[in-house]
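Form 7-S
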Amino acid sequence: MPTTLTAFADVTTSDSALRRFLHGLPGVDTVGLEARAASLGTRSIKTTAKAYAIDLAISMIDLTTLEGADTPGKVRALSAKAVNPDPTDRTTPMTAAVCVYPDMVATAKAALNGADVKVASVATAFPAGRAALPVKLADTRDAVAAGADEIDMVIDRGAFLAGRYLETYELIKAVKEACVRPGGGTAARLKVIFETGELSTYDNIRRASWIGMLAGADFIKTSTGKVGVNATPANTLLMLEAVRDFREQTGIQIGVKPAGGIRTTKDAIKFLVLVNETVGEDWLSNHWFRFGASSLLNDLLMQRQKLSTGRYSGPDYVTVD
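Output:
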């Protein structure tokens, strides 16, 4: 299988070329998309399969705190929970990452102390993305220099919705270049947030997905979690179809991260079914699929304890974030 973007080299040479390509993508069948997402959400997962799904979902969480009131103590506590989610059961998987603001990256990195948990940082004037390009790039470089393993950037939705597609592409490409570490080393992986709740149409979500993938995104991500409509089964299904089609045409695999509003084990399992049925086992690992969440972990832990002990322990038996 080829692993190249050569076939799309002409697509990004001008705004008009990119526009022709994006508007030439097949239109989204809204009724069909939502019906398929709803149908896959009715799958029943029981016993051994459910236990596997719960552990897999825990391992895919970007455990997140993105509040103005965040403190070093809160970030250290969250990092400890990421490494050891259930102190009563050391077989519980670690989460994939801890996601914080750039000024908390060093704190999280020190608290994790070499554990196999990534530090993700939001950047580019998260969540609105309303800042000049030099500010966005400085935001990214600061987070990477502080030790961020992953960068979650936001696109300029205003530019995208105004049809300035090449500007959106160039922003992602520039941030991708800013993910390279000073002095070399492994670059931070880049997750590109579209804020799907503000893109208005499924066609726009498909177009944004292709812009992100063409520009070098390692992940495409639904949302910041800061607006009314965040991750939904339908918009995530659409993005999964996009990464599937992109790999078929280029050989390049891109991850997907739904974020915001995923709070229960039932929700998480629905999304895992979407992954399995749409893109298959190749994406069923935390290298290629993540949940952006803060409260989801607690429900997963309670359901895990119930499967293990036969009784429901309740929220008093998990730590408060």
